[in-house]
Specification:
heterodimer, A: mainly alpha, two-stranded antiparallel sheet, 2 strands, 39% helix, B: 538 residues, alpha+beta, 3 domains, nine-stranded mixed β-sheet, three-stranded antiparallel β-sheet, 19 helices, mitochondrion inner membrane (chain A), mitochondrion (chain A), ATP-binding (chain A), ligase (chain A), EC 6.3.5.- (chain A)
Chain lengths: 179, 538
């Protein structure tokens, strides 16, 4: 069992973890960056890294700071009905995970954004009226050959390892769909 | 165990079950319906899963087969169709709805999740009303409440080759738009379930948003069944109305048996999913093996915000719904039978028909009104019904002639004039039948060369000499009838007619007369003459 599973094992234990002091540090922010107009811009944007993965990995210092005490680990193991062994290993793993969570908490976010608008695409859309809907149907219904939307324009199963009479093939399929 | 199995067999073979007052049935429906939008839900590949059955993976875009990097883009035609249905079902359309990911792994679901609406469905809290007179339920009136409507994508199709230990996957159906409609568990009788399904199909077809066919899988029905408020059973794999009703009946009987044996605490304590195999239900999974779908909002699709203006504009544009049309047709001045009214109001099948109700109903109403106006006091209210529903549609089916081609030359005005000619006795009914068939046959053969001008029946009657003979010489008629009797040369038949043993056989003689006179003499006149000659006194 991982330390994280252990952490989830009991509600009481979880409350104990939540009561730890988490150092809330907001070191990072996300920027979309300038508009890329041509291929050159795209190449340049990939030529220089703007961030480092290390920024998101907790340091040894962070882990040390988040390590739960032996007493907490013992209590958690007892609550979970698990043998009292490998205490140091669990302390280490739990410390790593808490440090990582702390990093995530540290990411700067816009607090005033409605959570249901958390999208990769347009966030705050306007309610659609009948006129705009009809316009969308007239304008946006053009099939794009670059997206394979024209029937028969590309060989769908061409890259599959195995195919049969134009079908994809799934081997050893016995459980019929009941979803 | 053996005894239990044989008992199941007996129930399965039973044709009808009886609802027992001390065992209360409660059913709810979950209906998935494919929308007939031009394109798919999150891509613009063609939505035509049936026509391309022989071309697997033909209508499949990069997104439909889940190529890495492809993204969904909502097709707003599905929003328009869903709004129509929501309004027709008296639902509240949510001002804001969203799409979510329902994760499960399956071969015909290459994304690894289905895009559906779990947290904020498109519409909620609607209802559909059933009535004794129109829907044949036992109670005068029933209002079935609708919990919600959600838009989601269909999966691909798996063809199982168990012998070869493989499945063939066709993604033509992948990403086809579906609407899932969920009712509250308010059905207390399978008659209500049947009526609801029929009515829902009629609604879909009249709105033009789905074929509503169960047989092709365009509509799929799951049923929740519980008896005396024990845990519910969800029934799946129900391919047609008959299977749905039989499965409910089977499940009801199974529950009653379990309760009578006192085993409900053991066997009906937890929800389970069962499948129908044509004879009995079989357990698919129980609560303990229910799937955790790990729902999450889809971060690649914006929330859907619908304005009030959109909803009210759609509501105003919706055509009269089947119930309103039926009530109109069975009342004055049309006075149609419910059966005939249903033929005009909605299609029994949404696929491959030669005519649509959108063309047929206005044709009937305009013809009726024109005919009524011209006929005045001589109006025969059943004439337009009989000649449009039985003769015209019958011929159209016989000749496989699309109604849309017919109405180019046969307008309501010309057809009503044709009816007037019959009412005025200018053409006999048998001649009219021949003439109508001839016109349609001619139209069929002259496909693509059809002049778009209305048929002039009066000229045709003159041209073919079909006008009914006003003054028939009785002596000539007697002679004609006598020769028919002679030619028939069947003394036993003639004797049976005379004695009244075979009264209907006189129609055979009349038929011969009509044939020889090319329908220009009224059949009543022939019948009268035959009776006179044979000295029939019945």
């Amino acid at each position: 069992m991982t330390a994280f599973k252990l952490m989830r094992a009991s509600r009481k234990g979880f409350q104990m973890i939540r009561s730890f002091k988490i150092d809330s540090v907001r070191l990072f922010s996300i920027k979309v960056g300038p508009k890329l107009d041509n291929l050159e811009d795209v190449k340049n944007s990939f030529a220089y890294p703007t961030w480092d993965i290390k920024q998101y990995i907790a340091s040894g210092e962070d882990i040390e700071r988040q390590k739960p005490s032996e007493e907490v680990i013992t209590k958690l193991l007892k609550l979970s009905g698990l043998p009292l062994q490998n205490l140091d290993e669990f302390r280490e793993k739990l410390g790593e995970q808490l440090a990582f969570l702390n990093k995530l908490h540290g990411v700067e976010v816009e607090e005033d954004v409605d959570a249901s608008h958390a999208r990769l695409v347009e966030r705050c859309t306007e309610p659609i009226g009948f006129g705009s809907l009809v316009q969308k149907l007239e304008v946006e219904q053009k099939k794009d050959v670059n997206l394979g939307e024209i029937s028969g324009s590309w060989n769908c199963v061409g890259n599959a390892d195995i195919e049969k009479d134009g079908f994809f093939v799934l081997r050893n399929e016995s459980a019929k769909n009941s979803g | 165990m053996l005894r239990y199995r044989s008992a199941l067999k007996v129930w399965g073979s039973r044709k009808y079950s009886v609802l027992l007052p001390e065992f209360k049935l409660k059913c709810g429906l979950e209906i998935h319906t494919q929308l007939c939008t031009k394109n798919k839900l999150f891509s613009l590949s063609t939505n035509d899963a049936f026509a391309a059955a022989d071309k697997p993976n033909y209508h499949a875009s990069y997104f439909d087969v889940s190529l890495p990097g492809s993204q969904p883009k909502l097709n707003y035609e599905a929003i328009l169709f869903a709004t129509k249905l929501a309004v027709a079902l008296n639902c509240q359309v949510s001002p804001v709805s969203q799409f979510d990911r329902k994760h499960y792994f399956y071969g015909d679901q290459p994304l690894g999740y289905q895009i559906t609406q779990h947290f904020a469905p498109f519409a909620k809290n609607g209802y559909l009303e059933l009535s004794k007179d129109l829907d044949g339920i036992d109670q005068e009136h029933r209002k079935i409440e609708i919990m919600q409507l959600q838009i989601e994508q269909d999966t691909g199709k798996s063809i199982y080759r168990d012998n070869e230990k493989l499945s063939l996957i066709d993604l033509n159906r992948s990403n086809v738009p579906l609407i899932e409609m969920v009712t509250h568990p308010q059905f207390t009788d399978w008659k209500e379930v049947r009526a609801f399904i029929k009515k829902y199909q009629a609604l879909l077809r009249s709105l033009g948003i789905s074929t509503g066919d169960l047989e092709t899988g365009a509509m799929r029905v799951d049923v929740n069944v519980s008896v005396n408020d024990n845990a519910r059973v969800e029934l799946k794999n129900l391919p047609n109305t008959s299977s749905i009703l039989k499965a409910i009946q089977f499940e009801y009987d199974r529950h009653v048996h379990i309760i009578k044996e006192g085993n409900q605490h053991k066997l009906l304590a937890q929800t389970e999913t069962r499948s129908w195999n044509g004879y009995s239900t079989a357990r698919l999974r129980g609560k303990e093996t229910s799937i955790d779908y790990r729902y999450m909002p889809d971060p690649e699709i914006p929330v859907v915000k619908v304005s009030q203006e959109l909803i009210s504009t759609v509501a105003q544009s919706i055509p009269a719904l089947p119930d309103a049309i039926l009530r109109k047709l069975i009342s004055q001045p049309f006075n149609l039978s419910l059966k005939d009214a249903k033929i005009l109001a909605f299609a029994s099948n949404g696929h491959g028909e030669l005519y649509s109700q959108a063309e047929l109903l206005p044709f009937y109403i305009k013809t009726f009104e024109n005919y009524q106006e011209k006929a005045g006091k001589r109006v025969e209210t059943k004439l337009p019904t009989s000649w449009i529903i039985h003769e015209l549609l019958g011929n159209i089916n016989k000749l496989s002639l699309p109604f849309s081609d017919v109405i180019k030359v046969l307008t309501p005005t010309s057809f009503s004039e044709f009816l007037i000619l019959m009412t005025e006795g200018k053409i006999s009914r048998p001649s009219a039948k021949l003439l109508l068939f001839h016109i349609l046959k001619d139209l069929q053969q002259r496909q693509d060369k059809v002049p778009h001008q209305s048929i002039d029946f009066q000229s045709l009657i003159k041209e073919y000499g079909l006008n009914e003979l006003k003054n028939v010489d009785q002596e000539e008629l007697d002679e004609l009838c006598s020769s028919i009797i002679k030619e028939v040369d069947n003394p036993a038949l003639i004797e049976a007619i005379k004695t009244g043993q075979k009264r209907n056989s006189i129609k055979f003689l009349v038929g011969q007369g009509m044939r020889l006179s090319q329908g220009r003499i009224k059949p009543q006149l022939f019948e009268k003459t035959f009776k006179k000659l044979l000295r029939v006194d019945w």
